[in-house]
Structure formats: structure tokens, C-alpha cells
Amino acid sequence: MAENSIVLGMADLMVVNAPVKLVTLGLGSCIGLVVYDTFAKIAGMAHIMLPDSRGLHGSEKVGKFADTAVPAIIEEMLRKGASRPRIKAKIAGGAQMFSLPGASPEFLTVGAKNVNETRKRLQRLGIAIIASDTGGNKGRTIEFSTSNWMLKVKTLGKGISEI
Amino acid sequence: MLNDKQLDAIKEVANIGTGNAATALSGLLSSMIHMDVPETELVSIYELAEHYGDPLQTVGAVFVRSTGGFQCSLIFIQPEDDAGLMVELLLKQQFGTYIPINEVPQDLTDSALAEVGNIVLSSFLNSINMLLGTQHQISVPGVAHDMLSSVLDVVASIYGQMGETALMVNTELKVDGLSEGKKISGHIIMIPDPDSLGLLLRKLKVI
Fold first, then answer.
1. B4-203 has which CATH code?
2. What gap in Å lies between CA B4 and CA A129, rounded to an integer?
3. DSSP of B99-157, one letter per residue?
4. Which of A70, B30, B87, B131 could potentially form a cystine with A121 if both were Cys, beta carbons 3.0 to 4.6 Å apart?
5. Any chain B CB within 8 A of the CB of A83?
6. Which among B55, B144, B160 has the least Cβ separation from residue A26?
7. Tens digits of per-residue pLDDT, A57-109?
8. A-chain residues within 8 Å CB-CB of B149?
9. Can you give the pLDDT at residue B113?
């Protein structure tokens, strides 16, 4: 069966049935989180921008923050028929695009905080992180295919890897 | 949320800053610089890259942080080819002879690009601080070559902490007098800290 490609924008979060290809373009400090259940044939992706929603008002997209995106995507997986012990996760992104010698402002290291918070939230829900490609100083474009449950990561100047 | 009068006032300040940046760049490159009227607009943080072009386009970008009386972050962003031509032009000025960019080590071309960004952004800032009567210190510049969307994540994450809208003060500079078919353009993006934005609006008497 042919796979439809779905491109997720900033702060988008989506859970769909296979066959499908889930794509996020040009992740810098943002995180591309993939969760999937190969038995139920369901996959989800979220494009997370920031680690935590504390101090912000409620009306924003749940996919924007790691602390709201992770529980929301797992809940949606379960609602669509996934089983929690079978759900696996892969993550990519969380780069630091600019480094200033000396004291860098805090917001330049938001990528690392995104990675930490996403990992912590997944661990708290008992979701295994099977593979990750995070950090560094380069942006990433990612594609997750339910034909082989692999996450293709394209990095400028470094080529393509599959995790 | 900012009103039209406030956006116009910020635009006027950006116009003065850009004029100063164009003069400095013109001196550095011994070339005529054409500047556009700046745009000040409120853009959804979820659509920043799409708003400014192809999210996957490779760009060369220089980031600086300014502290002092008027705190802000600034980015000078160019299509990668334009950044390359800019560096070639600068190297030609410095060494008196044309050096193809692919024969120069990247750390050298990056430091040349950082120098261009630094001069453009610090001249932009000087005029704003002069207007406000504030003192400022500017950080050492950071350089990135990457997808537009990845670079603008920096802007999205700054504004994302506060809400869902980014105030984009964006202005374009173009180098004139290049051989046919060549162009160099670059955009200055200013991201004022919330307190500094308040200071600016009070000084301009639009708050």
C-alpha cells in the first residue's frame, strides 16, 4: 500500500494509522518525537518547540511543549488502540544553532533542555526510547516510515542516516 | 499586543538603524548599498520560516546579543550564496585580489562573515542606543550555516516563551554594482527583550 506523506509544522502533534510517512522539516532547537506501536500499526509525531509550559496560559497547542506533548501523544496512541508496553519512541533534534564564546544567553541552549524534558517525560510514562539523534549544532529534517518503522534523519553537510 | 501606530514607530527606528548599517557596510566593502524600507510585523511563531521564504533554503546567519540599556538579540541572515559572495567581496577588499571562496578555509570565511554581521548589526544598534540615550555592549558574534527553518527556531523559541506571536523587525540590504547576474542581499532581524521594547515605545511616546 502506498504511503501518504504528512508534513507536520511547528507545535503540530498527530497520531495516525499505517501506512503513512510522517515528516518534519528543518528542526533546529525543536524536537521531532516519534512514537509507534508496530502491532497495532499506529504511529505519531510531535514537533516540540520548548521544554515546559509552566507560567503560560492554557490555550496554546499541546504539541508546543515537551511536558504537554508527551502525555498528549501517548494518550492519543492509547485512544487509537495502541498498548502502552508496546509503544516505542525515537527522538531527533535539539541542536544549538548559535554558540557565542563566553556567556551565552539561556535561550540559545533551549535545544538541550528540550531533549532532557522529552526524555524525562517519556521515562515517566514508561516509554522506551529506541533511538535518538540529538544535540550538535546542525538542523535536521526527519521522515518516519511505517513500512520499516525507521526514522530517516537528514543533516546539512552530514548526509542521511536511519535510526 | 502592539497597535499600528506602535509598529510604525518601531519601523521608523529600524529605518534609522538600517541607514547606519548600510553606511557602515558601504565603507567596509567600498560598494554602494541599497536599503529597503524596513517591515515591522507580527508573525505567528508557527509560521516564521514559511513567512520569510523556503523553510529548507540554506542560509548563512550571524547572531549577536546586545546587553545594556536596550537589550535585544539580532540576526543578520543571508541566502548561503549571497553570504559567500559577500565574503569574497570582503576578502578582495582586504587582500586586494580576488580569492574564490572555495579555496579559503571555512574558519576564515566564517570569521569574515562574522565580521560583516558584526559591523552591520552593531551599526544598527548604535543608532538605536543613541536615540534612546542608552549604553550597550555587544557579544562576540555566532555564525550558522543551515536551513532557514532551523535558524529561525531561535526566534520562535524566544517568542514562544511569551506567547504565539513574534514581533519581526526585518529590513533588507543589497549590495549594488556587482557583475551581471550576481546579487548580494541580507536581512537584519531584531528581537527586542520585552522590557526594552517597553522602553523604546515610551521613548517614542507611543505608549
1. 3.40.1550.10
2. 48
3. --GGGS-HHHHHHHHHHHHHHHHHHHHHHHHHHHT--EEEPPPEEEEEEHHHHHHHHHH
4. A70
5. no
6. B55
7. 666 799 999 999 999 999 999 999 999 999 999 999 999 999 987 767 888 99
8. 25-28, 139
9. 94
Cβ count near A81 (within 10 Å): 12
Q: Phi and psi of B53, rounded to 5°?
A: 150, -150
Nearest to B70 by CA among B122, B18, B27, B25: B122
Average pLDDT over residues B143-153: 95
**Residue A11: which of A46, A51, A44 has the closest Cα?**
A46
Q: Which residue has the cell 574558519?
A: B107
- Determine the Cα–Cα distance for residues B82 and B119; give it in Å rounded to an integer: 17
What is the ipTM for the molecules in this complex?
0.91
In this prediction, residue A39 has a pLDDT band, given cuts at 50, 70 and 90, of very high
Please say whether the beta carbons of A105 and A59 come within 8 A. no
Residue A7's φ and ψ, nearest 5 degrees, are -100, 125
Q: Does A115 touch chain B (CB under 8 A)?
A: no
Active site residue A30: yes
Assigned C-alpha cell, A155: 543533516
Across the interface, do A29 and B153 touch by the CB < 8 Å criterion? yes
> Could you say which of 3.40.50.300, 3.40.1390.10, 3.30.1330.200, 3.40.50.920 is the CATH number of the domain covering A4-162?
3.30.1330.200
CB contact under 8 A, A25 and B141: no
Decide the pairing of beta strands A128-134 and A88-93. Answer: parallel
Q: Where are the domains of chain B?
A: 4-203
The three cell numbers of residue A51 are: 521544554
Test B156 with A49 for CB contact under 8 angstroms: yes
